[in-house]
Amino acid sequence: MLYFRLLPERYFRLKSQPTHGTARKQAVEAIPIPPIDKRAAKSFIRTNERIRAREVRVIDENGEQLGVMAPFEALKMARERTLDLVEISPNAVPPVCKIQDYGKFLYEKDKSDRAARKKQKVIVIKEVKFSVTVDEHDYQTKKNQAVRFLGEGDKVKASLRFKGRQMAHRDLGYKIINRLIMDIGEAGLVEFMPRMEGTTLHAIIAPSKKAEQQQPPAPRKPAAPAPPRPEAAAPAPVAPAPVVPATSDASSSPVPTP
To answer: Disulfide: which of 96, 154, 195, 238 matches 89 by Cβ 3.0-4.6 Å?
Structure first.
């Protein structure tokens, strides 16, 4: 009796019945099985009929323990509440199952995983290469690059490759790498001291906690400038009132006496 899969939703069993001669009659009997939830298969979470333990410890949707019972009894309780039976702790003895909405459970789990990935820091190892005959200006430039990488929270791999007869003067390479470690100072911590691998001398320096605390926050985008307000119209100038000269009456003015 052979088993093989023709469709993802069903198993098919092949029965062979010999007849006259070499001819065989084959009958295919289809045995339906419950559909596979792709999300459950990806996360290896057993639900409902896929729970194969003899006994399970059941927790209801409110977090209260219902005790140890057979899986079919727990599944019956979950169906009565129109919920699912989800195995949340398969390694416990007996396994722990919870009555809850399976879709909501997966959504909350994905949401918590995304939040955890946002908080974690991905550390990148950046390499700074030297040579035995490195010039002073090149050395200072690469040292500043290493300090900048450490300030950004990345690890630095300082490597120095010996060429030809330079292998007879390894002490010169050790002096350059040790000088770099001394010049970096408190900006980094040495994870691996200088060591040889083939013809390459390298050391790994990790950022120190002080450097991570002193790292400035990311600059914020400048806010858009507010539109200028329309200026208030200046008041119109008031014309001065005309001055009327006082009129003198000849009869009222006094007549000088001789």
So the answer is: 96
103 plus 133 within the same structural domain: no
Q: What's the confidence (pLDDT) of residue 185?
A: 87
Q: Domain for residue 115, yes or no? A: no
Q: Rounded to whole angstroms, how far apart are CA atoms 185 and 210?
A: 11
In a domain, 58, yes or no: yes
Cα separation, 201 vs 194, in Å, equals 6
Which residues constitute the domain of residue 181? Answer: 125-213
Q: Rounded to whole angstroms, what are the CA distances from 145 to 153, 177, 254?
A: 13, 15, 107
pLDDT on residue 209: 78
Q: Indicate the pTM of the whole model.
A: 0.44
CATH code of residue 80: 3.10.20.80
Distance CA 84, CA 136 (A): 70
